[in-house]
Amino acid sequence: MNENISKEAADRSGDWSVWRQGDDGNQFLIEEGLFEAAARQMVAEFEARGHKQLYWATQKK
User: Fold this and answer.
1) Average of pLDDT values for 42-54?
2) Which residues are CB-neighbours of 10 under 8 A, at least 6 positions away?
3) Is the pLDDT of residue 1 over 50?
4) Would you say the C-alpha torsion 32, 34, 36, 41 has a positive or negative sign?
5) What number is the average pLDDT over the span 4-16?
6) Nearest partner of 28 among 53, 49, 5, judged by Cα
7) Is the confidence at residue 47, as pLDDT, over 80?
8) Per-residue confidence band for 7, with pLDDT thresholds at 50, 70 and 90
9) How far apart are CA 40 and CA 13, in angstroms?
10) Domain ranges in the chain?
């Protein structure tokens, strides 16, 4: 399978979510149903604000 086609399909799937882990280790869903680019952009924006929490994007399997 062409890797670019796979990535394009993932970008259109809308099955990405953004998560946060606080200082106490608890994990929270921030938003779901996102496209990959939007999820990664959201993570970048939170990280740019200098928060201490850990942010990441994941895709449903």
Assistant:
1) 90
2) 36, 59
3) no
4) negative
5) 62
6) 53
7) yes
8) low
9) 14
10) 3-59
How far is the first Cα of the chain from the last one, in angstroms, to the nearest whole number? 18
37 phi-psi bin (left φ>0, alpha ψ -120 to 50, beta other): alpha
Fill in the amino acid letter for 37.
A
Residue 32: is its pLDDT beyond 60? Answer: yes
Contacts by 18-27 with C-beta closer than 8 Å and gap 24+?
18/42, 18/43, 18/46, 18/55, 18/56, 18/57, 19/55, 19/56, 19/57, 19/58, 20/46, 20/53, 20/54, 20/55, 21/53, 21/54, 21/55, 22/53, 23/52, 23/53
Report helix, strand or coil for 4.
helix
Residue whose structure tokens are 């939170």 = 46
Mean pLDDT of 40-54: 91
